[in-house]
Design goal:
There is one protein chain. By secondary structure, the protein is of the alpha/beta class. It has a domain at about 1-170 and about 205-230 and about 295-310: Rossmann fold (3-Layer(aba) Sandwich). It has 11 helices and 10 strands. The strands form 2 sheets. The chain has a 7-stranded parallel sheet, sandwiched between helices. A 3-stranded mixed sheet has the order 7-8-10. Strand 4 (about 65-70), helix 3 and strand 5 (about 110-115) form a beta-alpha-beta unit. About 40% of the residues are buried.
Length: about 325
């Protein structure tokens, strides 16, 4: 099977390319910048944006399956009107154009890596595939737009489709908030997480890759969206402690009141707005530190007969080893 991977040069994309090649797939991958990463067995093609219908037609031609990873990434500090338009243009309209190209090319299966943010970003009760979608930020709304556009473009056609909604994906070399937490732990400084009593789901990158491979091999039609999880469910203090223990670091947690953390986030909002910059501390970042977001991915496991191959403790150990190497 010849597979097209959009966003192949990203954190998840590079791990996915390795997994596809190791399992005998022929791989074409898109990237935005020249030159592409070093992967001699991959046929690279440049896709500067997700608005060029002609470029998409060329990328899709001759492929039997598409894994759509390319997206405008979630950046909590950016909340301006232009950013909202960019999210919709790339994650919403770009997905629609790609799905249309897939339908015209007769692609057999389209796998869209969406996000649990298309459902919500905070919930006191576990989220599953029956939870009504009510995204709370521009990123989540754009992902939901992309999901609906995909279904609309492919309904009634021959292209089977599957939407996966992972929570935050982590692993060796991961960017974003998990990487920031790793660096804080590596610094040895006391962290103000001792009073937090939340629970959030995460997903190890190699388990996500395995789930995608499982969808590609699945013999039956799917045409549905699935929440995805691998049992990596931690409170913020538990996650910090597990990463510290796995990397041999000493961790000190201070019981700073939640109200004080939220106040610090609001101060960060004001500072970011005053200096027109994107800072690491703002209300959105604090909400993710103190809020809960548990994901129930049991329907995916039942439908596809899938069990994550890498247990959470092993996944954290692999991630922490990368932290030690970086420090």
């Amino acid at each position: 099977m010849k597979v097209l991977v959009t966003g192949g040069s990203g954190f998840v994309g590079l791990r996915l390319l390795s997994g596809l090649l190791a399992n005998g797939f022929t791989v074409r991958a898109t990237h935005r910048r020249m030159p592409p990463p070093s992967a001699p067995a991959v046929q690279w093609c440049r896709l500067a944006d997700l608005e060029s219908a002609r470029a998409m037609e060329q990328a899709v031609a001759g492929t039997e399956a598409i894994i759509h990873l390319a997206a405008l990434a979630h950046q909590p500090a950016r909340a301006d009107a232009q950013r909202t338009q960019d999210f919709q243009r790339v994650n919403g309209e770009g997905t629609r154009l790609l799905a249309g190209a897939a339908a015209r090319a007769g692609v057999a299966r389209f796998v869209f890596i969406s996000s649990i943010a298309a459902v919500c970003t905070r919930s006191a009760t576990p989220i599953d595939d029956r939870t009504v979608c009510s995204p709370s930020d521009a990123y989540g709304r754009s992902k939901l737009t992309g999901e609906r556009a995909l279904a609309q473009e492919l309904t009634g056609g021959t292209t089977d489709w599957c939407i996966l909604r992972p929570p935050l994906v982590y692993g060796p070399g991961n960017p974003g908030n998990m990487r920031r937490l790793q660096r804080l732990i590596g610094s040895g400084l006391p962290l103000p997480f001792g009073a937090i009593r939340n629970k959030r789901s995460f997903l190890f990158v190699d388990n996500l890759v395995d789930a995608i491979l499982t969808v590609l091999r699945h013999p039956a039609s799917t045409r549905s969206a699935f929440a995805l999880s691998d049992g990596s469910d931690y409170s913020t203090p538990q996650l910090a402690a597990a990463l510290a223990a796995a990397s041999g670091r000493r961790l000190q947690l201070l019981p700073v009141p939640i109200a004080a953390l939220k106040l610090a986030g609001r101060v960060g909002d004001l500072v970011n707005a005053l200096f027109r910059r994107e800072g690491g501390l703002d209300s959105s970042a604090v909400d993710r530190l103190v809020g809960s977001l548990l994901v129930d991915g049991s329907r995916f496991g039942t439908t596809f007969g899938w069990r994550p191959p890498i247990a959470p403790d092993r996944a954290l150990a692999l991630t922490a080893q990368a932290l030690v190497g970086a420090c």
